[in-house]
Design a protein that fits this description.
By secondary structure, the protein is an alpha/beta fold. It is 35% helix and 16% strand. It is built from 9 helices and 8 strands. It has an 8-stranded mixed beta sheet with strand order 1-2-4-3-5-6-7-8, sandwiched between helices. Helix 5 runs antiparallel to helix 6.
């Protein structure tokens, strides 16, 4: 990582911070849009669409319990972008509190979720789109960039999950997937605990590194515009987020920290607006 680029990123973030305006976005639950189901074989994905404009796929945080409801935090994402974009969001397949269901594909966990995300855009007749993902949305975006780079006009990776050696210990606070097997088997008794455990071991603990779905070498060659919004908590470690910003040739970064104090959130969101507008196809 070139020192000059590190200096430029740091200087840019510092300059942006001086423009902050002390206001806080309301964090009310996102209003429901056109709730529908997309069916592909045994997979049934619940999704909503709100707003008009260039398509923006939104992926909420929450780990394997990622649902549309999660887009109300750390700010009201749908309300913020629906005025300029066709916002599309879905419950993750087999999220315990969500409405999307499908097989637990033990041998290809990350790939199965990419199937759902790309399949939904195909179902809606959307070729090119932008994407913004929080938490687990970071690795999901990595998978989309690897699988369909020509379709992603720009990507915002916000507070991404990433690998840390401490995560091998299931008692570590950042091992956010540890409760999923019990939750999903309680809701779906046809899914065995053994299957659920094998799924998360394959997904998060087998050859785990960096962003789970992509390597550092991939990020060095990724030509898609990327905006990184770092965090620094056990589930959202700072190092992988910063590496994304430093490695990807067309990456940018927001101020950091951007969630605390809360008065910084509007500034970070303005940066997202500017980034998306700059890379939105005509």
């Amino acid at each position: 990582m070139a020192l000059t680029r590190r200096d430029v990123l740091a200087a840019g973030a510092a300059a942006a911070a001086t423009a902050a305006v002390p206001s806080v976005f309301a964090q009310q639950p996102a209003k429901s849009g056109t709730g529908k189901f997309y069916q592909r074989g045994p997979v049934r994905i619940y999704y909503e669409e709100v707003g008009k404009g260039f398509p923006l796929l939104l992926i909420s945080g929450g780990g394997l319990n990622s649902t549309i409801a999660g887009l109300s935090s750390p700010f009201n994402v749908i309300d913020e972008f629906k005025g300029e974009y066709r916002c599309i969001a879905a419950d993750l397949r087999n999220a315990p509190t969500g409405q999307s269901t499908g097989p637990v594909e033990v041998d290809r966990p990350w790939e199965s979720y990419a199937d759902d995300q790309i399949g939904l855009m195909d179902h809606l007749g959307i070729d090119k789109f932008m994407v913004m993902g929080f938490c687990i949305g970071g690795p999901f975006i990595g998978g989309l960039l690897k699988r369909a780079p020509s379709r992603i006009a720009a990507a915002v990776i916000s507070q991404p999950v990433g690998w840390r050696p401490e995560m091998r210990d299931r008692s570590y606070q950042g091992s956010f997937w540890k409760t999923w097997p019990a939750q999903i088997t309680a809701k779906r008794p046809e899914i065995s605990m053994e299957t659920a455990e094998k799924f998360i071991v394959k997904m998060f603990e087998t050859d785990a590194d960096f962003l789970f779905t992509v390597t550092r070498d991939f990020m060095r060659t990724c030509q898609n515009p990327i905006l990184v919004m770092p965090d620094d908590v056990p589930a959202h470690p700072l190092a992988p987020a910063m590496e994304c910003a430093m490695l990807a040739p067309k990456a940018e970064i927001t101020i950091f920290p951007w969630k605390e104090p809360k008065e910084r959130i509007p500034l970070a969101v303005r940066q997202v607006h500017s980034f998306l507008k700059a890379h939105r196809p005509a």
